[in-house]
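RECORD TYPE: inverse folding
INPUT: structure tokens
STRUCTURE:
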């Protein structure tokens, strides 16, 4: 860490006082997350975005879809700033508004639009969230996907769900939490006509999973799990539900970043974990718990490159601009898109 940058960030933050509120996702770098007022998983950060109405600026240390959601959920006088505009998410980019409209047309053609409920992962663009809200669906995160599906099939009365854009979270939740089988799930591939599915397949499916995935979590394999169990006797394999089915089904514990932290923090000294999630978080847990064995599930380096784009030079630049009365890298969502996205986000925030 560069002490000069840390000193400048601290000075700019102090000068701004209550006028700035800094949110940090658990995958952020150590030196950046040290400046966050609140750290959390995607759900907690969405809940907390509007927690400081006195702050006119919200600096989001995370990725683009999180900053968009914060803009949708905060008051009009609040500006949301993403220190580096190139901090996107490859998974969110796997579902474009045009592709999702096409998929809905295919569902209409199959005669099953009534009875199909969109459930979209937080890791999606505001346009996808608006699509979800327009069709009476909900957003979910990795910490409430089960409740979102329970709601879609229960209170909302759905016969099937179109789950966007992470096929793994959708499949893992449907099978492990709702007791469905692989046969209840089909994968809609936006690059193929009709998603590569027949009308009958769309009709008979309970889960229409979008063909999207996280490039970071997609690297963990069943072999990683087998290898670490041999290497570290007594290890508990603790993974994020964005991992593939073969990994999640072989793991001991599965949950969001907030859950992963809680499990490791609360484990007794001497416990061993192999953690399958982004490396900044795993390294932070290992450093915080020298009395526990915490290893990365993969042997290779596996940071989320877009989360890592938020670094100290960008944070200092954004904070110093604010301290001078300038706004850089503001994220704004089109008002009509925001209205429908907000509907879907509010639905998530009121899930039982
Ligand atoms: P959570 O923090 O909600 O577990 O999400 C992980 C993630 O991939 C965010 O990009
Ligand atoms: Fe997107 Fe995966 Fe990075 Fe999360 S870890 S921001 S899902 S690419």
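DESIGNED SEQUENCE:
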């Amino acid at each position: 860490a560069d002490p000069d940058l840390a000193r400048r960030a601290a000075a700019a933050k102090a000068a701004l006082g209550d006028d700035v509120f800094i949110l940090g996702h658990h995958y952020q770098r150590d030196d950046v997350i040290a400046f966050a007022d609140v750290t959390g998983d995607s759900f907690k950060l969405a809940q907390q975005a509007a927690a400081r109405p006195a702050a006119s600026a919200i600096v989001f240390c995370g990725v683009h879809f999180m900053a968009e959601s914060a803009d949708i959920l905060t008051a009009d006088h609040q500006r949301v700033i993403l220190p580096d505009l190139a901090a996107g998410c490859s998974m969110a980019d796997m579902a474009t508004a045009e592709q999702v409209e096409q998929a809905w047309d295919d569902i209409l053609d199959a005669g099953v639009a009534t009875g199909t409920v969109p459930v979209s992962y937080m890791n999606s663009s505001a346009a996808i969230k608006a699509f979800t809200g327009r069709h009476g669906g909900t957003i979910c995160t990795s910490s409430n996907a089960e409740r979102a599906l329970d709601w879609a099939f229960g209170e909302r009365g759905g016969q099937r769900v179109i789950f966007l854009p992470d096929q793994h979270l959708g499949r893992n939740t449907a099978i492990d939490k709702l007791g469905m089988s692989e046969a209840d799930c089909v994968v809609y591939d936006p690059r193929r006509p009709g998603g590569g599915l027949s009308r009958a397949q769309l009709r008979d499916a309970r889960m229409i999973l979008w063909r999207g995935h996280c490039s970071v979590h997609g690297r963990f394999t069943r072999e990683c799990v087998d290898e670490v169990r041999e290497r570290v006797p007594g290890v508990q394999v603790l993974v994020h539900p964005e991992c593939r089915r073969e990994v999640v089904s072989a793991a001991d514990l599965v949950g969001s970043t907030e859950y992963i932290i809680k499990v490791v923090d609360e484990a007794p000294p001497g416990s061993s974990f192999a953690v399958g999630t982004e490396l900044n978080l795993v390294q932070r847990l290992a450093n915080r718990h020298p009395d526990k064995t915490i290893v990365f599930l993969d042997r290779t380096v596996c940071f989320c490159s877009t989360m890592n784009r938020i670094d100290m030079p960008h944070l200092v630049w954004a904070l110093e601009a604010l301290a001078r009365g300038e706004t850089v890298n503001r994220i704004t969502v089109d008002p009509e898109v925001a209205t429908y996205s907000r509907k879907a986000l509010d639905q998530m925030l009121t899930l039982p």
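NOTES: Residues 27, 63, 89-91, 123, 214-216, 278, 304, 306-307 surround iron/sulfur cluster (ligand 2) (CB under 6 Å).
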